[in-house]
Amino acid sequence: MVDLAMDGDTTDSNGLLPLALEAVSYRAGDRALIDQVSFRLEDSRRTVILGPNGAGKSVLLRLCHGMLAPSDGTISWGGSAPAATIKRRGLVLQRPVMLRRSVAANIEHVLKIQGVARDLRRGLVNAALDQAGLEPLAQRQARTLSGGEQQRLAIARAWLLEPAVVLLDEPTANLDPGATRAVEELIIRLGATGAKILMTTHDIAQARRLAEEVMFLHHGRLLEHRPAVEFFAGPRDPDAADFIAGHLIR
Amino acid sequence: MNDFSNALSTAFALVTSLDPDLFEIVGLSLEISLSAVVVAAVIGLPAGAALALSRFPGRRPLIIVLNALMGLPPVVVGLIIYLLLSRSGPLGSYGLLFTPTAMVIAQSVLVTPIIAALARQTVADLHEEYDEHLRAIGSGPLQRMATLLWDGRFRLLTAILAGFGRAIAEVGAVLIVGGNILHSTRVMTTTIALETSKGNLALALGLGLILVTLAVSVNAAAMLLGETAHRRYG
């Protein structure tokens, strides 16, 4: 059954949204990696956190997923704490962890952890393999896959059990153009299922291709948060303008 | 030199003729050491994994002690188990001293720290790699332990083989708690010690050959296992 009310409507509530951060800081020693960041994400548009390396993008994503606790401020998903809702989100890392098992077993492992009954797992594994175009590789050892294939497997794992939100941390940073294209297509298809996509990248061209909404992060501070069209037409922040003009910002 | 070659040919004859006395001893050795390794693995694998994954005060000293216990002198273990199991000892009422069970206990004590310490290292290394993924999917502590033990299975099997190598080759512990009683608690190493002192070099050397063959096989198996795992799982 397709829920028609959700078609073309990006302001749906998928149960976990809004994601609300209020004055969130994260300090390592006396250095603020994330500095007083506040924002709300209300809808399931694809949101891209853009910024140079070292901006704090990965830390911000981990804070949102509940893998790091903020030094200050609050984070909530639809009113709940990040850690309490962890199983309703998927996370894809820049260098995905591949268990020493087959591709299919890597997917099944997540289902097992999430408490899916054994007899239901096979069908879900096959569906996930199909979605990511990995059926021919199902029995291959995951660690022998190419970088692009590993990243597709990581997305397939994050896609299981209809996640409300999928967080992706620089998912194509280590990939060649062909593999990048395959991963980006998968991300777009994943977003089309209604899952909120929140990803980080330092790649301006990728942000242009994928973002419907941009958050520009620099030195741990959120400098811009606007629809992608507006952002790329003319960033208000001078650092952001420099960055998308291709200058090396400090 | 003549003595040696004579002994060697007699030893070969004993082995190739499947001498019943010799194989009784070999059989008992394997039975005791394999049992001890099973007991040690059942205790040591989860204990090592738990130590790798938990955080509590005094954990570091405990790890240091555990690593040090890998080199526990067999005679000391034998002595302690002897005191525990002897008539006047706290466990004397079970009448276990000078039985194969006592020997299994002694070797288990010897091998458990080896398996636990190697398991801890294996699980800790793997955990460093897997941690972020396991946390991201909301894995509980027991699930985490199961995942890491399973994915470390080949290296853990190597740890178990190392434990078996230690058990089958030690003489001090089984000699003290077993007593080297003919047809009852006589194993390869204790027989070698006894027969050598009696001048019966052929039997001693025959057993020595088998022991060395076993040790080489166990090591070869461990190496093969590691290589296969690396090829297969990357």
Question: Could you explain the architecture of this structure?
Answer:
The complex is a heterodimer of chains A (250) and B (234). Helices cover 33% and strands 24% of the residues of chain A. Chain A is α/β, with parallel strands linked by helices and 250 residues long. Chain A has a domain at 15-79 and 87-98 and 164-244: P-loop containing nucleotide triphosphate hydrolases (Rossmann fold, 3-Layer(aba) Sandwich). In chain A, the strands form 2 sheets. In chain A, strands 5-6-7-3-8-9 form a 6-stranded mixed beta sheet, with helices on both faces. In chain A, strands 2-1-4 form a 3-stranded antiparallel beta sheet, with helices on one face. In chain A, a hairpin with a 2-residue loop joins strand 1 and strand 2. The relative contact order of chain A is 0.18. Helix content of chain B is 80%, strand content 0%. In chain B, helix 4 runs parallel beside helix 8 (172-178). The longest helix of chain B is centred in the middle third of the chain and has 37 residues, at 100-136. Chain B is globular and about 65 Å long. The mean pLDDT of chain B is 92. Chain A binds chain B through residues 65, 67, 86-87, 90-91, 93, 96-97, 99-101, 109-110, 112-114, 141, 143-144, 157, and chain B through 129-130, 132-140, 143, 147, 151, 229, 232-234.
